[in-house]
Amino acid sequence: MTTGDPLIVLDGVNKWFGPLHVLDDVSLSVGRGEVVVVIGPSGSGKSTLCRTINRLEPIDNGTITFDGQPLPAEGKPLAKLRSEVGMVFQSFNLFAHKTILENVTLGPVKVRKEKPAAARERGLALLDRVGIANQADKYPAQLSGGQQQRAAIARALAMQPKAMLFDEPTSALDPEMVGEVLDVMTSLARDGMTMVVVTHEMGFARHAANRVVFMADGQLVEDAPPNEFFANPRSERAKDFLSKILTH
Amino acid sequence: MNVLIDKFDVFAGGFWLTLQICVLAAIGALILGAVVAVLRISPVPPLRAVGTTYVNIFRNMPLTVVLFFAAFGLPALGSNADFLRIPGLDAIFSRLGTDLPYFRFGLIALVLYTAAFVCEALRSGVNAVPAGQAEAARSLGLTFGQNLRYVVLPQSWKASVVPLGSVIIAMIKNSALVGFFGVVGDLSQTADQLTSAGGYAFIPVAIGISVGYLIMTVPLGALLDRIEKRQAVAR
């Protein structure tokens, strides 16, 4: 699955929110085409970890490299890096004043300077791929949560990113809509997209992940293939966490 | 009450001059206020500091003092504010081009003072846009300017327009002060002319100029109410 140099490398990353040590000496590398699922109790720093990779959260020390380059600090180089890393948020964050298709084509047209007609054609193909082509001209508020999240995935894919970050993509959804979003993510994983997924969906972790990373109190506690992690968690904290979520 | 009929042309002239200074000051304050607002939300700390300092100075100083600085400070510095003698524009707004600079000084003071409030009204609109919108735009690789232009400002406008209107209404009322800083013949100074020089009774004259200001402010307020109702429906 992994070929050549890793795509994303975090080395000795630390971050504080005031006195709270939210990332404590975290090191992680993600290979090209690899799907890494990050799980852990709330407040363990897993969302923050995800957001540091495209520098939505700056770090205090340590290094992060993406595709061989350290993350740029600000300005145009940072914008360029972000255009190569897709991000999907818990609360969708679709642009409320734009139609679904406009949401999907804004980045390609304004950032990549693609021709509007070409961006539109590819946007429609992507909306078709996530199963909402018939919603292209609606506004985000007119769609269900599951449809909005699929539109958000299409918006990120429209930039043809090298990797995709998912920050709890199904946590804000009604239960019957979780499946449709996970299906899209699973098909992306099968197509070889490099993915970092923060989630509470253990089923997704089991069948789609190459590795499961368990975080607690800002530390990266375990890093193992899913069947190994779920069958035999090594740390007490992981055992405790799994016993709490898997007994229901 | 005969003064309202006998001196109707004086009231009308005062109204026209006040309207002129208000239109010009509103345009100037909206432009300058937008610039200061962009500074205040910029990701570059020194630019933010410039914007914040501007707002702190002009929001916290009485307009009368700003007018004093404009009307007495600028001449002391050797300026007649001649840069405001804009060819073409001074054909419509004749006082812009006169040798007496007090209309220009009053205009500068009103613009500087009101821009601070315009900035804050615009910024409150920007703050009303959920942070996730700008975050999503950044994560697509949009630059700060593109983010403002395509994502944040089109959405902040709705939340800004009512407070902006209130700022402009306040500015129209504040313009009554310029008549006491050398601007001859505006609506408020008309009252002074008619009562002290013309010997007319104060109350009818005061009613006359009040009506003049209300003609400018009441329709603006009604327009804002309509915009607000339309937004409530859209929500």
Which short descriptors sum up this protein?
heterodimer; A: 248 residues; alpha/beta; six-stranded mixed β-sheet; four-stranded antiparallel β-sheet; 9 helices; 10 strands; 38% helix; 24% strand; B: 235 residues; mainly alpha; MetI-like fold; 0% strand; globular
Describe the structure.
The complex is a heterodimer of chains A (248) and B (235). Chain A has 248 residues and is an alpha/beta fold. Helices cover 38% and strands 24% of the residues of chain A. Chain A is built from nine helices and ten strands. In chain A, the strands form two sheets. Chain A has a six-stranded mixed β-sheet, sandwiched between helices. The longest helix of chain A has 16 residues. Chain A is globular. The mean pLDDT of chain A is 90. With 235 residues, chain B is an all-alpha fold. Chain B has a single domain, classed as MetI-like fold, CATH 1.10.3720. The longest helix of chain B is centred in the N-terminal third of the chain and has 34 residues. The mean pLDDT of chain B is 90. The interface between A and B is medium-sized, with 28 and 18 residues.
Q: How is the biggest beta sheet of chain A arranged?
A: 6 strands, mixed
What's the overall average pLDDT of chain B, rounded?
Answer: 90
Mean pLDDT of chain A: 90
The count of DSSP E runs of length 2 or more, i.e. the number of strands of chain B, is: 0
Anisotropy-based shape of chain A: globular
The helix count of chain A comes to 9
**Rg calculated over all Cα atoms of chain B:** 20 Å
Q: What is the alpha-carbon Rg of chain A in Å?
A: 18 Å
Low-confidence stretches of chain A: none
Task: Give the domain tally of chain B.
Answer: 1
Q: Percent helix among the residues of chain B?
A: over 70%
Can you identify the CATH class of chain B?
Answer: Mainly Alpha
Count of helix runs of chain B: 10
Secondary-structure element order of chain B, N to C: HHHHHHHHHH
CATH topology of chain B: MetI-like fold
